[in-house]
Amino acid sequence: AKGTWSTGYFGCTDRKDDRMMQVIKFPSKKDYEQLLKRPLHDYRAVRKTVQAILDNVRFNGDAAVKQYTQQFDQISLKDFHLQANEWDAADSIDESLKKAIDVAIKNISTFHRSQFENVTKVDTMPGITCWRKSVPIEKVGLYIPGGTAPLFSTVLMLAVPARIAGCNEIIVCTPPQTDGNVHPAILYAARQTGVRKIFKIGGAQAIAAMAFGTETIPKVHKIFGPGNRYITCAKMLVAAEGVAIDMPAGPSEVAILADETCDPEYVAADLLAQAEHGKDSQVLLVSTDERVIDQTKDSLQRQFSQLPRWEIVEAAVKNSKAILVQTLDDALELINQYAPEHLIIACRDAEAIAENVRSAGSVFLGNYSPESVGDYASGTNHTLPTNGFAAAYSGVSLDSFFKKITFQQVTKEGLSNIAETVQVMAEAEGLRAHANAVSIRLKN
Is residue 285 within 8 Å of residue 321, measured between CB atoms? Predict the structure, then answer.
């Protein structure tokens, strides 16, 4: 009956006790908040660790960065700055990958160029003209994760709009590989998008270096890029000190809304695709049809064993849920409350359903819109708010690399027209000097 929980387990293999995705049937709306909680981590311990790293880098610069690179990456580097001869490794990647990256750059550029806004001057009353202008952020730092997978696609998602916006200085920080080099695909993506400065550092120490500056790494005005909970924590801590960040972007996640018109093979593939991002990723399936859940379970079982990153997928799936609800309205209410980073709507009339989506980072409509297309090459940006922050934050766009400056020009006539309004309001707030700044002009 509606309002009661019935829990089962969504097995990824025959060993259902080891690898499982919780199935919940007809939860009560009062239980949504508890049901939709992300995987819990001890953020107090993370914050303490990250704050110590930030303070060390702030006061000791390159020496602290070298210390943490040795400690966390087991690499001793004399120079973090990528040297001219190291760029040659970009040419070592397969021609097919070069072509794929070039196509992705084209699509991402096309979509982000369309986001330019024209300056529009508005006369709010006779003699008063107001307008707004987009001005590029001068110095931006891009964090590119390199851990279990070198995310060269993130270079495209951040460097392309930064270059289109006209940012004067673009630097990239990315963890070195075990041999001390940067992955060739990251180098190729950076070169193709016009990046010229790469520093071989990762983790919270990279965020600190970009936020405060070191002898080698320049201080930037805004930091972009996803990462694990240490990266997210570091970004939020430096933001509290006045360094702008794109958004809180932590462990990746997807929610899928599927009805009887979906293809369970596709749904399972999308769930697994997101789960392989990291052990702390989360995937969520919501459906009004129990057969969809059962068929997706079978598809997961078939596909799971084929994945090379199965240990990561296994851990992520344990954080995940399949939820059966009574109606589409229930499903949308639940999803809007969850505010997923990615939302796939594998339903009849997907576009109409999407009109009622209020909180999501990026939405994928229909059976032929896998989330991985957005991750790489459709044109939309894959740097998105996670952990419920999509309720208030937008994903990265061209606007992310601009400051919006407002302008106004008031003529003598315009000042006369608005003078009484301003004077009355200033006097009511007890700010006599504000009122005088108007009245003194009217005396001349």
Answer: yes
For 179, residues 6+ apart whose C-beta sits below 8 A from its C-beta are none
314 is known as an active-site residue: no
Instruction: State the catalytic residue, choosing from 112, 277, 342, 382.
Output: 342
CA-CA distances (angstroms) from residue 307 to 14, 310, 367, 368, 433? 16, 5, 22, 21, 69
How far apart CA 54 and CA 60 sit, in angstroms, is: 10
If phi > 0 it is left, if psi is from -120 to 50 it is alpha, else beta; for residue 327 that is beta
Return the bridge partners of 22, or none. 9, 321
Contact yes or no for 44/199 (Cβ under 8 A): no
pLDDT digits 0-9 by tens, 322-376: 999 999 999 999 999 999 999 999 999 999 999 999 999 999 999 999 999 999 9
Q: Which of 253, 341, 371, 382 is catalytic?
A: 341
pLDDT over 70 for what percent of the chain? 95
Tokens coding 250: 């932590």
Question: pLDDT category, 120, cuts 50, 70, 90?
Answer: very high
SS3 string of 276-306?
CCCCCCEEEEEECCHHHHHHHHHHHHHHHCC
pTM to 2 decimals? 0.92
Confidence at residue 249, expressed as pLDDT on a 0 to 100 scale: 76
Q: Are 36 and 338 in contact (CB under 8 A)?
A: yes
For residue 117, the 8-state DSSP code is -
Taking the C-alpha atoms of residue 140 and residue 130, their distance in angstroms, rounded to an integer, is 29
Residue 394, sorted as left (phi over 0), alpha (psi -120 to 50) or beta, turns out to be beta
| 277 flagged as catalytic | no
- Average pLDDT in the 81-103 region? 97
Count other Cβ atoms within 10 Å, centred on residue 24.
Answer: 17
